[in-house]
Write a structure and sequence with these properties.
There is one protein chain. By secondary structure, the protein is mainly α. Helix content is about 65%, strand content about 0%. It is built from three helices and no strands. Helix 1 packs antiparallel against helix 2. The radius of gyration is 23 Å and the shape is elongated. The chain starts with a helix and ends in a 27-residue tail after the last helix.
Length: about 120
């Protein structure tokens, strides 16, 4: 097998994922683009494992399995955050997400307090 074909395919998949992360406004599509990038990394790991003889056999496949587990956890947490964002804002646009908390409002004064 020629290793050039999977490497080029993985580079194209990763580039498409980066483009999706940078250009999309919808949080679900951004998560899909991140998954595309992780799949490109898996393709690189498996291809490198089959073409390069290392000290540890099947190490690329083991790393690919770890990346798959990481991707599953990322999707679980990411979708939970996106669903909560949709419940609060009725939109999943990434541009509308506040990155910091609003400043706290001062407590209302009651008439019982003595001013200093």
């Amino acid at each position: 097998m020629r290793p050039v074909i999977p490497y080029v395919t993985a580079a194209l998949l990763f580039g498409l994922g980066v483009f999706g992360v940078l250009r999309r406004r919808n949080a679900v599509l951004v998560l899909m683009a991140v998954e595309l990038m992780l799949n490109a990394v898996n393709l690189i790991l498996v291809t490198a494992d089959t073409t390069v003889r290392a000290q540890l056999p099947h190490s690329g496949q083991v790393f690919a399995l770890f990346v798959i587990v990481l991707a599953a956890a990322e999707i679980g947490v990411g979708l939970a955050i996106v669903l909560q964002l949709y419940r609060l804002r009725a939109s999943v646009a990434v541009d509308d997400v506040p990155l910091s908390e609003p400043p706290a409002q001062p407590a209302a004064r009651t008439g019982d307090e003595v001013p200093r």
